[in-house]
Amino acid sequence: MNATGTSATGARPEGASDEQSSAAAVRQMFNSIAPRYDLLNHVLSCNIDRVWWNRTARRFRHVLAQPQASILDICCGTGDMTLALLRRRPVGAAPVLAADFSHAMLARGAEKFRHHNAVAIEADALHLPLSGSSLDLITTAFGFRNLANYQSGLREFHRVLKPGGELGILDFSEPSGLVGKLYAFYFRRILPAIGARLSGMGSAYSYLPASVQRFPPPQQMVRLMEDSGYTQVSWTPYTFGIAGLYRGVKA
Ligand SMILES: C[S@@+](CC[C@H](N)C(=O)[O-])C[C@H]1O[C@@H](n2cnc3c(N)ncnc32)[C@H](O)[C@@H]1O
Question: Which domains are seen in the chain, by residue range?
């Protein structure tokens, strides 16, 4: 257990023993599933992911509406969260930065951004090639949970945000009650089986429920964000708490 009462410090795919090997395993996994990622995402989430990306973008519409706002979508993968942000940018606005450390995922994102105002950057979320206090908004959708060290990620985002800059982390959580039981059955039994069949990579889709189980629950995540220097921290559940948006502001 760490100071926040969270036993998980970061993602640990099977076989990975430390932060370096975890990051390498995560990158390798996303490079392998990149060709089928979008298809699988939409099939396995029954397209609810689109609603979640749009809700997240809507939550930050006051920042997106400012033409000069500097915005980063980190762990952008194949770019659907970035596209949801771009749809709310005014004409002539500064480009949105979209970064990921998986070359194959980012290449697919970059292809989608070709006719949009976004710049794709191959970069590690824990070591961003950006100056301190330079961003107004950072978003990350379903990527934060995969970081090898959550506190390092929150600290790095804090470093590059301007004072008053905002952070939005969209990720899965584990709902409680009957919905939780039904969802757990789908997420731990059915999803890995379909994922393995369609992607040809069983380990990636057994890693998904394992990583959600390991991820700090909302109360602990909120505390982790507060301990990392964010204020006005909140968690808004989406779709019975299957997913949710963490928001925080750099003081
Ligand atoms: C589940 S995908 C999400 C992609 C996209 N944001 C979406 O909503 O579909 C997670 C992404 O996080 C990226 N990722 C994981 N750890 C990262 C890190 N340390 N730095 C940069 N990208 C990372 C992976 O390469 C992958 O593309």
Answer: 19-34+45-174+216-250 (3.40.50.150)
